[in-house]
């Protein structure tokens, strides 16, 4: 495998291009190009100016179209683009590799050879991880039906949910950090200024990964079962949620949680966690409120956001969407503690979830609990 080829821009070019996103061109829209598009599309410091691919059925073509990335059949036309800072070759083509060996332009960095091999290692690891998650999710669907009948199935569901959190958040963050560290290693001698910039970006991404790791750990055991203090656990969770999601969060409570049975506390936390996860993933909201009203005989919990909303009736008739949005889990969890959850939503007017649980009935069902 030939060594990596990194050519630094001259200082005048680097100065001219500072203060804007790095313009990246990708050669190859297979699994490697697809993974790079997914990573770079989420990075505000990177803009993909084009992807070269001769095969119209390549894996990344649909993604490129969805992201509005120009698709160029001939990689030579991609090399002719003026607004390019970085070219990454993941085509695996010896002809393309040779052409890049002969390609020279001031201000353009080329990654291939050993660096390309390293990226493929990351990509292959990601593909394997994705396959394992898909297998886990398939098993989860069967186990979830069992959970509806038996509360004990909730353990499997939580493990699967956390596995998805790790894969979709922490693993991808660490993969991005790893990639930028490799790029920094290539630049450290040839372009120290660019290397320092990459290091600062990597440090910021690593801090986010640490926060995600802490959140996953917290989600494993959010309520201390020896004390079962629900309100402090929710307060901590909502602070972390607001920081990570950038969604303004309001929380209010009336009544005393001491009247709540332990099982209700645990299930309520999970319902609120699922509802807030939906707000972050689907609602496109910038504010959400959580209110809990604890009475002598009844508990009422409300989650309301100012997002885009949806057609509840249409979604309820589609089992796949009903499951995908986590709505079935919310409804079934409420039923498992003898209550009910009602979901209200209208397009353009946000979503409101209201749960009622009869506390006396739940207390009697759990006996001394």
Description:
Helix content is 55%, strand content 16%. With 369 residues, the chain is of the alpha/beta class. It has 2 domains: 1-129 and 174-204, Rossmann fold (3-Layer(aba) Sandwich); 224-365, Histidine kinase-like ATPase, C-terminal domain (Heat Shock Protein 90, 2-Layer Sandwich), CATH 3.30.565. The strands form 2 sheets. The chain has a 5-stranded parallel beta sheet with strand order 3-2-1-4-5, with helices on both faces. Helix 2 crosses helix 6 and helix 6 (114-149) runs antiparallel to helix 7. The termini are far apart.
Task: Provide the low-confidence segments as ranges.
Answer: 1-18, 361-369
* CATH architecture field of the largest domain: 3-Layer(aba) Sandwich
Listing every helix as H and every strand as E from the N terminus to the C terminus, the arrangement reads HEHEHEHEHEHHHHEHEEHHHEEH
Number of strands: 10
CATH class of the largest domain: Alpha Beta
Strand order of the largest sheet: 3-2-1-4-5
Question: Over the alpha carbons, how many angstroms does the gyration radius reach?
Answer: 25 Å
Number of helices: 14
């Amino acid at each position: 495998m030939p060594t990596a080829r990194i050519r630094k821009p001259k200082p005048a070019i680097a100065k001219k291009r500072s203060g804007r996103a790095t313009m990246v061109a990708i050669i190859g829209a297979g699994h490697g190009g697809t993974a790079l598009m997914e990573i770079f599309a989420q990075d505000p410091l990177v803009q993909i100016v084009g992807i070269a691919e001769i095969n119209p059925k390549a894996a990344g073509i649909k993604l490129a179209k969805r992201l509005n990335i120009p698709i160029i059949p001939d990689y030579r036309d991609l090399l002719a683009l003026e607004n390019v800072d970085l070219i990454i070759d993941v085509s695996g083509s010896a002809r393309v590799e040779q052409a890049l060996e002969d390609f020279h332009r001031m201000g353009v960095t080329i990654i291939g050879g050993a660096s390309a091999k390293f990226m493929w290692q990351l990509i292959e690891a990601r593909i394997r991880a994705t396959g394992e998650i898909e297998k886990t999710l398939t098993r989860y669907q069967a186990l979830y039906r069992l959970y509806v009948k038996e509360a004990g199935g909730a353990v499997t569901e939580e493990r699967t949910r956390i596995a998805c959190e790790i894969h979709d958040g922490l693993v991808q963050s660490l993969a991005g950090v790893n990639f930028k560290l490799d790029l920094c290693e290539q630049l450290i001698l040839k372009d120290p200024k660019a290397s320092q910039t990459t290091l600062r970006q990597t440090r910021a991404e690593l801090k986010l990964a640490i926060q995600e790791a802490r959140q996953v750990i917290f989600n494993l055991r959010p309520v201390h079962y020896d004390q079962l203090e629900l309100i402090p656990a929710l307060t901590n969770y909502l602070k972390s949620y607001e920081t990570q999601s950038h969604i303004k969060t309001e929380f209010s409570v009336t009544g005393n949680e001491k009247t709540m049975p332990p099982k209700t506390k645990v299930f309520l936390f999970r319902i609120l966690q699922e509802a807030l996860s939906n707000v972050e993933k689907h609602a496109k909201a910038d504010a959400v409120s959580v209110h809990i009203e604890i009475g002598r005989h009844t508990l009422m919990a409300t989650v309301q956001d100012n997002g885009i909303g949806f057609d509840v009736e249409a979604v309820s008739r589609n089992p796949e969407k009903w499951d995908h949005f986590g709505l079935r889990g919310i409804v079934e969890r409420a039923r498992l503690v003898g209550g009910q959850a009602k979901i209200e939503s209208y397009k353009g007017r946000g979503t409101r979830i209201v749960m009622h649980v009869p506390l006396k009935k739940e207390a009697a069902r759990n006996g001394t609990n």
